[in-house]
Amino acid sequence: MKTTPYPQQLEAGRRTFTRILVGIDGSQQSLEAARQAALLQDPDGQLTLLAAWEITPLVGANGTYVPYYLDADIQRGVAETSLAAARDYVAPFTAATGLLTRGTAESELLEEIERDQNTLVAVGSSGCGRLIGIVEGSVATSIIHRAPCSVLVARPADNSFPARIAVGVDGSVESAAAYAAARYLAERFGAELHALVAWGGKGVHERLVAAITDGEHDDVHESPTEALTHAAESADLVVVGSRGLHGLSALGSVSERVAHTATCSTLVVREPVWQRIATELGRI
Question: How far is it, in rounded angstroms, from Cα 47 to Cα 30?
Fold first, then answer.
């Protein structure tokens, strides 16, 4: 796309990447999430890496031997090691803040988002499908459903990330926010940007779509989920807006489905309440 974005559009997109939180668990997936978050972080923003540890309750245990998953010192040590490794991993890109907490990863991430008013939380993909994630309660699945801010589900990407970005647009306020974030990244990194309008779904506002993309978009006759999932095959980042649904209401939403089915990293754009309030106050 060759259109020149409006300054306010770029500013709206930039705000998504100002305060980023990453969940660290020692896996390669979480290291990749940290790397991608460090790359996407606004130059004047901040990046926090959070490693949570907890001991697993065991019913019916006996004897004097303490299993490793019940040893608090071991669990804390593993988390500390994972956190240090993640900070070293992103050091070439940014000086990240490390945060070690006790509790489940999901609850600690959600509490920190609220406390620090983060604009984006990044997690590594569990690698499991949508239904398995729902049943097993993977952290990525829970964060997609419950986070009050934007969510990055990171999947393996090469060193050119982000070089090819696909974004879904239907004319809604949420898709305008997704386009602004995608447009900001495309301008900043010189990435290819493809805006997709999926006419196989419902609720597409043609006039508003044209206003958002300045007419530069591709029309596809698929459902939004199918269109973005197919686009992910040739992109390294798919961006989709969120309707702000949480919990069970989010099951089956386009953003939730795409985050689980896309083969590349997925950015679900969701404006935090505190960011929206600050924007409104700035207009007074």
Answer: 14
The CA distance from 99 to 147, in Å, is: 18
Per 3-state DSSP, what percentage of the chain is helix, strand, and coil (rounded to 5)?
45, 20, 35
Q: In what order do the strands lie in the sheet with 237-241?
A: 97-102, 46-53, 19-24, 120-124, 150-154, 265-269, 237-241, 164-168, 192-198, 218-220
Domains of the chain: 7-56+69-283 (3.40.50.12370)
Cα separation, 94 vs 48, whole angstroms: 10
Give the DSSP per-residue string, 96-125. PEEEEEES-HHHHHHHHHHHHT-SEEEEE-
Strand partners, 43: none
SS3 69: helix
Find where tokens 């993909």 sit: 125
Tell me: the pLDDT tens digits for 51-69?
999 876 554 545 544 454 5
Q: What are phi and psi of 183, to 5 degrees?
A: -65, -40
What confidence score (pLDDT) does residue 271 get?
A: 87
Cβ-contact 143, 106 below 8 angstroms: yes
Q: How far apart are the first and last CA of the chain?
A: 35
Identity (one letter) of the amino acid at 244? G
Stretch (H or E) spanning 90: helix 72-90
Angle (CA) 282 17 164, round 5°: 130
Q: Determine if the pTM surpasses 0.85.
A: yes
- Residue 51: partners with Cβ closer than 8 Å, 6 or more residues away: 24, 25, 26, 79, 80, 82, 83, 86, 98, 99, 100, 101
